[in-house]
Amino acid sequence: MRIGIFGGTFDPIHNGHIAIAKASLEECALDEVVFVPAGNPWMKAGQEISPSLHRLTMTQYAIENQENFLVSRIEIDKTGPSYMVETLEQLQKEMGTNLHLILGADSVERFSEWKNPSRIVTLSNLIIVSRPHYKLPVIDSEIVRESGCEITTLSNINVNISASEIRKNVLLGNPIEEMVPKKVARYIKLNNLYKAGV
Fold it and tell me: Which domains does the chain carry?
């Protein structure tokens, strides 16, 4: 089984995330893509993020009826900070060794700052996804040298949406139905997410 691992805060998950997962599934011949909502993302320490249960539920709604997509609670259920290297070690035990970590270009920029990046590239291959009109950064060759890590770049995904843009639109009362799956938009509204002071 070739399994894609797609981690993220998913605050909220949006159509760009779904497009990335579909492209990775098809172009990299994956059998499944597993979405891993971050529990307590260490790189966002000090930033306000939605409670993990909201982000998990939105992710579950977003992939409903999407064949070959799964959601893992592995980081949500973990106490303390979430580190991808620890997540991959656990997922290898559960799912096997043929893992492919899906990274956005913004994650690649800070990859060298992650906990033990040289271990990450021994645990998984990398699928790097570029945003439209975004210059793709290069991973430090020292990190991947002798790791055997296979790196695939996907640059033809034309959905340019950001979670921060969605949160801003909600705050301003602007529609988001074109940016997120319908059930996610409904969940955000019902739970008053991204409204200042709520």
Answer: 3-160 (3.40.50.620)
